[in-house]
Amino acid sequence: MKRLKRYQYERYAILCRDAYPKAFDHLQYGFSPNGRKDITNRWGQTIIRVLWREDGDVVVVFKGSQSVWDWLLNLVFVPSRVDAPQDVGHVHWGFHFLLRQRSRVKRRFLHQDFVKLSTSQQAELEQSVQGGDFQGYTVMESIESTVLPLLKQGKRLSLTGHSSGGSMAIIAAEILEQKYPNAVKRVVTFGQPATGYWNFKRLYRLQNKTYRICCDVDIVTFLPGIPLLFWHVGDLLWLHNDRIYRNMPSFVRIIRVLTSWLIRPIAYHFMDKYIRRKDYFDKH
């Protein structure tokens, strides 16, 4: 497995963070003026942004839970078979539903309301309704109809997401890789809960291209919290105590965090802690 480089990590992390607000200017991240398509959920809320450059690859950004209803879906962890050409086992029903729901197109503003908006707001609104051709499609079908013309141009896909958005990215990546072999370049998730059952982990095709980022004792990364029922996929990169640990077992992660909390008052007495904060003096 190739290592995830720092600039790649930073790029995906920033896109996942900035995807949440309604206002999103894709141009500031270097994407082409026409290199954006927003995909909405059943409520008309944007949950996925497909971004690309004319001379570069495609990044598909999945948002995490945005409403009480979305959070409740996290609790529906009964098995659901993935809608893919070849069997890949079972995944969390709630995360799978997020891809199988209908993509509802937002209604256009009345002209008198539209002209009252600033230029940037008008541009944002126009971008948000470009998905009009998705009416009646599921979210997964909307993703596929967007990326297929780009794949035909020779582009490849990077999928990234935070929390339940990371689980959506995992499932979507498997479906796309089955239909369009070698289309997926990498999958990078942040704070992602476990997505599938053991058979999904065993059959998942992108183990060597998937990076799962966890930070300290992020509780969501241990959910649904049923040992030996749900399993993670890909390469775990655990960020803890200024280091990156690879594929650290969950039990060991918990023990290490608890231990670090207990010894933290003593650890702050060591000289390396004082030296590490030398940059503070540049701010005073």
TrEMBL record:
It comes from Enterovibrio qingdaonensis. InterPro entries: AB_hydrolase_fold, Fungal_lipase-type, Sec_MonoDiacylglyc_Lipase. Pfam families: Lipase_3. The lineage of its organism: Bacteria, Pseudomonadati, Pseudomonadota, Gammaproteobacteria, Vibrionales. This is Lipase. Gene3D superfamilies: alpha/beta hydrolase. Residues 59-226 form the Fungal lipase-type domain.
